[in-house]
Amino acid sequence: MIALRPFAPTDAAAVAALSARWFDPDPALAPAEVTARLTADALGGGSHVQVAVDRAVDRAVDGERVVGVVGFVRSASMLMVWPLAADDEAAAAALLDAALTAGRAPGLTAARVSTRSVEPHKRRAVERRGFARSIDFVQVRRASVPPLAAPSVLATPRRGAAIDRAAMHALHELSFATLDNTAPMSSADFDELLDDPAAWPAATAAWHDDTGACVGFVIGLCAPDHRVVEAIGVAPAWRGRGLGQAILADVLAVAAADGEAEVRAMIASTNAASLALHARAGFVERARKELWDLAL
Q: For residue range 199-215, what is the model confidence (pLDDT) as tens digits?
């Protein structure tokens, strides 16, 4: 019997196992990452998250098994259903219905959810509720070698304790404000991203010009068999001047120095500038996930 209940920290390992089965092309999450991400401010500190459990008749033998998880984020007029992972269509449908019911609020005009090629059961649940496909997220990849030629720019990176987190956070919010499927990130959540157990501090950097202004940034994460450009941005006045290419060249150089063979990034299909930047740097498409919208 499938039942829903609130997420608890003791569910972290089971949810991590779900992510390993169903999150490709996104990196799977470790249990510590699950707890950090599902208790973030955007998810109501965890209050916006539920798990689906299969409660065996004989609990003394089988107990309770987590078979799905769902959360929701309210962003401007959009209700974003994330995460949503389930082992079958029944669990996916129950979790999706729960998120749509709990997440509705005045001012929200649409809901959005993603599906991956490995989740046909989830796609069926999404389509049967009237969602229509909107955009894709494109995962691109590049080997860390050969190195990428870096253009000369009048900006330099700061890493670790030298990062001005407030300035970097402000540029992050500016860079993603007009992009599809992005939600504002609080300063607390931004700090958690930089301090994530999967953080890649050697590649994460804030780039500053000779006046000390933060004009670019990149956030790196570690996956078991590759590295990830989680986010990259350049200040409007610096776009078209080679800074984005210089940042990617630096990331690839760090990966090569660390002995990492591959770097990946996930980019919205509507973010033409980022897709072009990565293509110029030699990144090629590896996989896609589909986004689906429902009018509320």
A: 999 999 999 999 999 99
CA-to-CA distance for 78 and 294, rounded, in angstroms? 10
Q: Is the pLDDT of residue 269 over 90?
A: yes
Q: Do domains 2-130 and 141-289 have the same CATH topology?
A: yes
For domain 141-289, the CATH superfamily is: Gcn5-related N-acetyltransferase (GNAT) (3.40.630.30)
If we measure between CA atoms, which residue out of 244, 250, 254, 241 comes closest to residue 277?
Answer: 244
pLDDT of residue 263: 98
Distance (Å, whole) CA 97 – CA 108: 16
Taking the CB of residue 249, how many other CB atoms lie within 10 A of it?
Answer: 17
Q: Is the dihedral of CA 180, 181, 183, 188 positive or negative?
A: negative
CA distances from 253 to 145, 212, 245, 262 (A): 8, 24, 12, 11
- The DSSP code for 148 is P
Q: Which residues pair with 232 in a beta bridge?
A: 218
Where in the chain are the domains?
2-130, 141-289
- Counting Cα atoms < 13 Å in the Cβ hemisphere of 164 gives 13
pTM: 0.76
Domain 2-130 top-level CATH class: alpha beta
Residue 105 phi/psi, 5-degree rounding, is -160, 155
Are 68 and 95 in contact, with CB atoms under 8 Å apart? yes
Distances (CA, A) of 2 to 66, 85, 171, 267: 9, 14, 44, 35
Residue type, 109: T
Q: Report the distance separating Cα 122 and Cα 128, nearest Å.
A: 10
